[in-house]
Amino acid sequence: MELAQIEAFLAAAECGSFSRAAEMLHVAQPSLSNRIQSLEREVGQVLFERMGRGVRLTDAGRWFLPYAQRAKRSLEDGLRVLQGAREGTAGRLSIGTAPAVGTYVLPRLLKVFCDRHPGVDVSVRTGHSDEVLQMVLEDDVQMGFGRPISHPDVHTVTLFRDELVLVVSSHHRYAKRGQVTVEELAKESLILFDRDSSYYSMILNLFRDVGMVPEQRMQLDSIEATKKMVEANLGVALLPEVSVDREIKLGTLHKVHIAAAEPVTREIAVMYRRHKPQTGLMSAFLDLLSQVYRVQLPAA
Fold first, then answer.
1. How many domains does one find in the chain?
2. End-to-end distance of the chain based on CA atoms, in angstroms?
3. What is the span of the domain harbouring residue 213?
4. Taking the model in full, what pTM does it have?
């Protein structure tokens, strides 16, 4: 069954005449008659009573009419969705992200994007950076955010550096000092991320550089939970600066400088498939990233 057959059927049902229906569709009357006849042969029913100069629906035609109308509306809706996706005004944007980026960076970006594209649905999945890369490779998401991982099938572009900062409770003695050495920090009750997180190795490397192993009080897999533990003065932690900005401003956490130590940073990158056609939505979001972070993002 073809769309041209459905359109011819609906036009004839509306006009009550094959000739007027042909004019409506800008086709020759014999062509329209052929479409309707082929549709009748396909469904095995006569859909119109031919009455001299006019036509009217048979019982079978009346039964078929609402289904033909719904089919045409559904197709038109689908075409509008495709057009919206192409133009960046509708459709779905799927993103994979490392937890810290998804919690503390992505909301601000999506707020700007969704304000510009109110008809868009957004799907966000989280995982460690290697899991995010796999989501991109398997087309589970259109793009991913995490630490840069090179892969021949993926564009990986660094957007910014994520610095880990030492935070303590407002009741901790370091809160007033504002500075501590790595050697002093190694003796504190340090709250660490789980071993699967890249933050874990970054923090341990800070102490390995001075030949020390930190005292570990807890090991968590949630930045939010870690902040609560630190606020309760159950230990100190090195956390992404973007994740503690609010608490530092409120005074529930205090940032403490680590003397004579290199900043603990990691790069955060966007990853997306090479040689894959980009939807209008994806192109629009990549344009936003280019504007915000002032980077050049290659086309797929």
1. 3
2. 37
3. 160-266
4. 0.69
